[in-house]
Write a structure and sequence with these properties.
CATH class of the largest domain: Alpha Beta
CATH architecture of the largest domain: 3-Layer(aba) Sandwich
Number of helices: 10
Strand order of the largest sheet: 6-7-8-3-9-10
Structural class: alpha/beta
Shape: elongated
CATH superfamily of the largest domain: P-loop containing nucleotide triphosphate hydrolases
Strand content: 25-35%
CATH topology of the largest domain: Rossmann fold
Helix content: 25-40%
Distance between the termini: 36 Å
Largest sheet: 6 strands, mixed
Length: about 300
């Protein structure tokens, strides 16, 4: 079994001379739930379309299941093993829910009738209703049903909970975690909902301006990052340079707020060496990590 279901090396792609990907390096471990984060225009959709074989990169390599996506024959085989939920949630407009399920089923030998029945009931999808008459949330649910029921080894999900109410979102997230745990399915999902990502992802990657700026285990990242609050005397001369690991320093009056990505003990020691200072440390959220990296690039 390969270690990484998705792997890209120095992937580049430009549109009319404007770079969308600038040497993207991406590793998605097998069996992981990987949250792919970035601002609008950061390169997330371009990455997903390249992995799906819908776009060809300018340079670099991309592999899914160990197979190069640039190989047309291999790319078809890759797509057979993937369940895909698009951001725009577009489906055949002339079909009903029942018809599109029946149409999709024969293309996938591993189709799971049990999952089809489960999600038709859970998502309360109306079988006779045509696609254009569904709300965006209902279309999201239908695309999830089609992606999951095909027995995919990899789910690529672009804003999978878009349009869902809080209760439906919680149901979907719970199901995704259950599928990953019971079936060993790898999930690569892009979302603007950082709280959702933090809730279910075990790995994250943050892309900005077409480059990966931070990636790794979410638990490790949250253990390494700390927010330090330093209170100092009025006349205190603060260090011109902090030790390695300081990502950002914000001053408000006599209080410094320091975001540290590593080397926390040495940073605390440097702060406490200043006469009359007090230092407290606090855990950080994924939102803080995300905002720090996309604002500083």
């Amino acid at each position: 079994m390969i270690d990484n279901i998705i792997e890209t090396n120095q992937l580049t792609k430009s549109f009319q001379g404007q770079p969308a990907l600038r040497g993207l390096d991406l590793r998605v471990p097998a069996g992981s739930i990987f949250g792919f984060l970035g601002r609008n225009g950061a390169g997330k959709t371009t990455t997903i379309k390249t992995l799906m074989g819908l776009l060809r990169s300018d340079s670099g390599t991309a592999r899914v299941f160990g197979n190069p996506v640039s190989d047309a024959d291999r790319s078809i085989e890759i797509r057979r093993r993937i369940g895909f939920v698009t951001e725009d949630k577009e489906l055949y407009p002339y079909m009903t829910v029942e018809q599109i399920v029946r149409f999709t089923r024969p293309f996938f030998p591993k189709w799971r009738d049990d999952l089809e029945r489960r999600y038709l009931q859970m998502f309360e999808l109306p079988p006779k209703k045509k696609i254009p008459d569904l709300s965006k949330g209902m279309r999201s649910k239908l695309m999830l049903l089609l992606a999951i029921s095909r027995g995919a080894e990899l789910l690529i999900l672009d804003e999978p909970t878009d349009g869902l109410d809080p209760a439906a979102t919680e149901d979907v997230l719970r199901e995704l975690v259950a599928i990953a745990a019971s079936e060993g399915t790898t999930m690569f999902f892009s979302s603007h909902q950082l709280a959702e990502v933090e809730l279910i992802a075990d790995y994250i990657g943050i892309i900005d301006k077409g480059k990966m700026v931070v990636a790794g285990s979410l638990d490790d990242m949250k253990a390494q990052y700390q927010r330090l609050q330093v209170v100092f005397a009025d006349s205190m001369e603060l260090p011109a340079r902090w030790v390695a690991g300081v990502e950002h320093v914000r001053q408000e009056g006599r209080v410094l707020s320091i975001l540290a990505s590593h080397n926390v003990d040495a940073i605390i020691e440097q702060a406490r060496a200043l006469p009359g200072t007090s230092v407290e440390s606090f855990p950080v959220t994924l939102k803080e990590i995300f905002l720090e990296h996309v604002r500083s690039n």
